[in-house]
Amino acid sequence: MAVSAQKKRLGRSLASLIGEDAGVTPGVADQRNVPLSSLRASRFNPRRNFSEAQLAELSASIGERGLVQPLVVRPLGGSGDRYEIVAGERRWRAAQRAKLHEVPVIIRTLSDQEAIEIAIIENVQREDLNSIEEGEGYHLLMQGHGYTQEDLAKVIGKSRSHLAN
User: Fold this and answer.
1) Cβ atoms 46, 120 nearer than 8 A
2) Could you tell me if 56 and 97 are in contact, meaning their C-beta atoms sit under 8 angstroms apart?
3) To 10 degrees, what angle do helices 131-145 and 149-156 make?
4) pLDDT single digits (tens) 133-158
5) Which UniProt keywords apply (predicted)?
6) Which among 120, 117, 33, 124 has a CA at the least distance from the CA of 70?
7) Is 89 a known active-site residue?
């Protein structure tokens, strides 16, 4: 692939690479629940360090509300029942800690290059909320929807003291 074509592809969003309607496009992607034991981490994931504290928070949130966003996976070696995680290894690790047995996935047939692109884009495009945005979101839930700090802490997997500060 030419360098200009590669740059153009890397400029695309994760949604455009996995497809907005990935779960309903025949032959392109399939969305279903698969056992955690059928998944393995990818050697292409650019993230090598996983914060224990953040995994614990994500695990608590997943345990309380389930997995909100499916993992993106690709089939391994033609067996049809084993998959490599392309995007979502943190969610997979947290789901294991939360003692889930299966997780929602989007199954895509991808080359190594496409898998690397999606893995990098997912991590590069992520922009965490700043403290003010995070606080405003918590405030909205507590004021507009009747959550206490303790209730909200359980729902989002953060400590009550985190919410208070």
Assistant:
1) yes
2) yes
3) 120
4) 778 778 877 887 778 888 888 877 77
5) Chromosome partition, DNA-binding
6) 33
7) yes
Pick the CATH number of 3-126 from 3.30.70.380, 3.20.20.70, 3.90.1530.30, 3.10.20.30: 3.90.1530.30
pLDDT > 70 in the chain, percent: 76
**Structure confidence by residue, pLDDT tens digits, 42-59:** 887 777 778 898 899 999
The answer to whether residues 61 and 157 touch, using CB atoms and an 8 Å cutoff, is yes
* Domain residue ranges in the chain: 3-126, 129-165
Amino acid occupying residue 164: A
Three-state SS sequence of 17-32: HHCCCCCCCCCCEEEE
